[in-house]
Amino acid sequence: MSRSKIILIAILLSGSLTTAFAISFLSGVSVIAQNNNAFSKEEEKTTTRETVVTGGHGSGYNTIRTTGDVLDSLNADERTDLTIDPMKYLREFNYGKVSTTDNGTTLREFTIVALDKNLEVSPGVFMDAWTFNGTIPGPTIRATEGDLVKIKFINNGSKPHTMHFHGIHQSNMDGVFEIIAPSGSFTYEFIAEPFGLFLYHCHMQPLEEHISKGLYGAYIVDPKTPRPPADEMVMVMNGYDNDFDTENNFYTVNGIPNYYMHHPIQIEKDKLVRVYLVNILEFDQINNFHLHANLFHLYRTGTSVTPNEYTDVVTFSQGERGILEFSYKYPGPYMFHAHKTEFAEKGWTGLFLVKEDLSESDVTAFTKGERADYPAEISKNTFTTQSKTKNSQSAAVVSYGEASQGGS
Ligand SMILES: [Cu+2]
User: What pLDDT digit, counting tens, does each position of 116-134 carry?
Assistant: First the structure.
């Protein structure tokens, strides 16, 4: 529900109660009932019924062909005006320019540039975005506990900005009071501590504007003893309010609505997957992540190597994050998406495609730069994955639409 709606309801309720309370003082409890009746009659008069258009949803996830008003980014790979390349971003960790200081500390140096950019957040939908290094989300910054991190921040945007990192550091490195004007620069310097999953974002007022226009990214601090090897990926949950009414029109993980539905994330059966999951969604109170046909170990804020929970849904408010670990027992396509169904319908969905092993040929709904025609196997709601046995290779047909992917 939008904030304005919540506020409106709060005003109406408090107005109604205050009036009822005042009247009841004068003429007794029965007036409260009358007042409530009057309120509901008034409400009846002013409420008009909305027509609900279902937008041609069929059974199961045939709806990935069109999600009604939310167009899917089918040809995203070769474009330069998109928010990001979600497949590249997924497993891209930036460790900076690495050197060693005189006292033996590892120094990691990064350069981040704030840029105004007109980005296509969904086909045909452009937004005047503010970015770190030209993308939404900004680059994932990664260090190890105890490293010295230096971030040279250059503001080439048209508005003043800062970089506020979560984590432990000095006040003057917190990116709140030192405002970096357009054409200005500032070097943030701090020790990476503690280990965990953090984020960075601009901290200029009005904060909701500077965040919703795209100024954020993930910041990972690894423990000195590394976590066990895994297929690691970062997922930043966000939204776009491209008509500036303080309500999001699109919801995504990693920048483009529904991207991973068309470009499934390929993972290997029985192999440990580690997702660094960050919620930066502006305007909405919560966001969440649901994994299909599986459960994950959840490390809240990533500040422990012992999991807090074994679950299939995690809900975060803005700024919250956690590390998810899981492996799939059976091959095939599996959805992941916001279990806030409104967000899922407006773009926050994706697929893991679990393979017997990654040497199998890629199976994606669309190859790079291809037109938005569905390959025959997708049109027929089936596609083929190689399922290997000890002595032979046989092709198994996996149902892709209809009932097999029908629920959440
Ligand atoms: Cu800013």
Answer: 999 988 877 889 999 999 9
The answer to whether residue 215 sits within a structural domain is yes
Residue 7 is assigned to a structural domain of this protein: no
Q: How far is the CA of 90 from the centre of ligand 1 (A)?
A: 24
Q: Which domain holds residue 178?
A: 68-405
What pLDDT does 361 receive? 58
User: Where would I find the beta strands (DSSP E) of 145-303?
Assistant: 148-155, 164-165, 185-191, 196-201, 216-222, 231-240, 250-253, 265-268, 273-279, 287-291, 296-300
Q: Provide the domain count of the chain.
A: 1
314 inside domain: yes
C-alpha 227/C-alpha 275 separation (Å) is 12
Decide if 260 is inside a domain. Answer: yes
pLDDT band at 90 (very low <50, low <70, confident <90, very high): very high
Distance (Å) from CA 266 to ligand 1 centroid: 35
CA of 216 to the centre of ligand 1 (A): 9
